[in-house]
Design brief:
Layout (H helix, E strand, L loop, with lengths): L3 E11 L5 E11 L3 E5 L6 H9 L6 E6 L2 E2 L4 H6 L1 E4 L11 H11 L9 H7 L15 H12 L6 E5 L7 H16 L3 E5 L3 H7 L2 E6 L2 E7 H5 L4 E8 L14 E6 L2 E7 L5 H9 L5 E7 L3 H11 L1
Length: 305
């Protein structure tokens, strides 16, 4: 049994007409981690997830899910993964409880082992268990999709933009449940455009752009790649024009007595930046710094690619 929850080697997908969605993608998703799969729209994330789910046929490469090759053991591979799609797809004429029972039956889960009520409770849908699904709000429908993905207790859960268009309270409830699953040993693969979520939740992040992997590192190491840092300095007099210095990458007057300076921390430090201001006769009243975040790294890597 492989020590990787998902192993992808030289994966490629070319659609009819010649569009190449994935081009030699290779990476492992370690077991028991929350793994972020990020990229701009059209980068190939959904194609990759659909290949894992068995909905799209790959053009080249090897993929294994929980140690099962998706070509040689497709049934076991599908039993090992639950996918929450980005689109809200449901049958409007079934209740949430019926939807979960049917989904469990499709996976061959015996009645005695089904967890419909427990999943409804975890998704805070108990009071809507017997209502028609078409009467649910958008957030409730998305929670129902999460419950459907977990009916067969897969060791891997893929969340494709799970918080798109949902309110803050629901987002917090969903992440609380994801953390509980993670604590139980479930491997989570997350795609999201809310980069602050990925930064807070993910142990490791891969970034895809134009069908290629441009980064695949532990989150802390990935954040360490950002070299530009911002410092906001309040000075002791009004500033009409931004002063210049070789250690400034960018500088802007953001208030009558406030300057916002961008510098590269691999070339200079904050002390040199402040010293350059003092050398021009400006007194320092207050200083606020902002460390680079995942959005800075993401934009830098995507622009380079």
């Amino acid at each position: 049994m492989s020590d990787a929850a998902i192993r992808i080697e030289n994966l490629g997908k070319t659609y009819e007409g010649g569009k190449r969605a994935l081009d030699g993608v290779s990476f492992d998703v370690p077991r028991g981690q929350i793994f972020g799969l990020l990229g701009p729209n059209g980068a190939g994330k959904s194609t990759l997830i659909n290949i894992l789910a068995g909905l799209v046929t790959k053009s080249q490469g090897q993929v294994s899910v929980w140690g099962f090759d998706i070509d040689q053991h497709p049934r076991n591979a599908k039993l090992s993964i639950g996918v929450v799609p980005q689109e809200i797809i449901f049958d409007p004429f079934f209740t949430p409880r019926e939807a979960l029972e049917i989904q469990a039956g499709l996976y061959g889960v015996p009645r005695s082992q089904r967890r419909s009520n427990a999943l409804l409770a975890a998704m805070r849908l108990t009071d809507k268990a017997d209502a028609y699904a078409r009467t649910l709000s958008g957030g409730m429908k998305r929670r129902l999709l999460v419950a459907k993905a977990m009916v067969h207790s897969p060791p891997i859960l893929v969340l494709d933009e799970p918080t798109a268009g949902v309110d803050v309270e629901l987002r917090q409830q969903l992440w609380e449940y994801v953390r509980e699953l993670h604590a139980e040993g479930v491997t989570i693969v997350l795609t999201t455009h809310y980069l602050e979520e990925a930064e807070q939740l993910c142990d490791r992040i891969a970034i895809i752009n134009h069908g290629k992997v441009v980064a695949n590192e532990p989150t802390r190491e990935l954040l360490g790649r950002a070299q530009e840092k911002n410092v906001v300095v309040t000075v002791d007099r009004d500033v009409m024009a931004a002063p210049e210095a070789s250690c400034f990458e960018q500088i802007a007057v953001s208030g009558e007595r406030q300057l916002t300076i961008t510098y590269r921390k691999d070339r200079v430090n904050a002390g040199e930046v402040l010293g350059a201001l003092q050398a021009q006769g400006l007194g320092i009243v207050d200083v606020t710094t902002r460390d680079p975040d995942l959005e800075d790294v993401f934009l830098s890597l995507v622009r380079q690619a």
